[in-house]
Design brief:
The chain is α+β, with helices and mostly antiparallel strands and 168 residues long. The protein has three helices and eleven strands; from the N terminus they run ααβαββββββββββ. The termini are far apart.
């Protein structure tokens, strides 16, 4: 087997980190760029080395800063996004299509020691580990996870998001 063929086979098997792993519609990207100057979507490269290993082992090259799901209503899709600047993170949600998007803050900017990953959780019942309050949702919650420690679940209720701290 030639060296060239071997390198081509390796290139097909080994994923390469790219800055476009976090793709959202261009009009939405432009709105975020305009309304959230100097903020950007969270990428795998922004995670600690250990978190990068754990994330890519569990999820592959999926963007840790973008999730598409039924967060606002059961019929329409929305984008949940973790945006970062320096050592701050925030969570946004956007709904729309084409050139028309509305952007809402789910979690305002927060200083963090290490960035958390974002993903679409499944509808169901979530119990807060501090209050033991149980919350049920038929929509997909937004999970903001500190890898290997726990997650904050954002559940849409009465046109706002409530936070549930989980140990999952």
């Amino acid at each position: 087997m030639s060296l060239r063929l071997l390198l081509c086979l390796i290139a097909l098997v080994v994923p390469v980190a790219t800055q476009n792993e976090c793709e959202i519609p261009q009009p939405l990207a432009s709105i975020i760029e305009h309304q959230w100057r100097d903020w950007r979507l969270l990428h795998i490269a922004d995670l600690t080395a250990e978190d990068q290993k754990l994330w890519t082992y569990a999820r592959g090259r999926v963007c840790p800063g973008v999730a598409r799901g039924h967060f606002l209503e059961s019929q329409g899709f929305a984008y949940a996004m973790a945006v970062v600047r320096g050592k701050q993170e925030a969570v946004l949600i956007a709904e729309g299509a084409g050139e028309r998007w509305t952007l809402q803050v789910v979690m305002p900017p927060t200083h963090v020691a290490r960035f958390r990953v974002l993903w679409a959780a499944k509808p169901g019942v979530y119990e807060d580990i501090t209050t033991h309050r149980r919350t049920q949702t038929l929509l997909q919650p937004i999970a903001l996870e500190t890898i290997a420690e726990g997650a904050t679940i954002f559940i849409r209720q009465k046109n706002r998001f409530i936070e549930v701290q989980t140990g999952e």
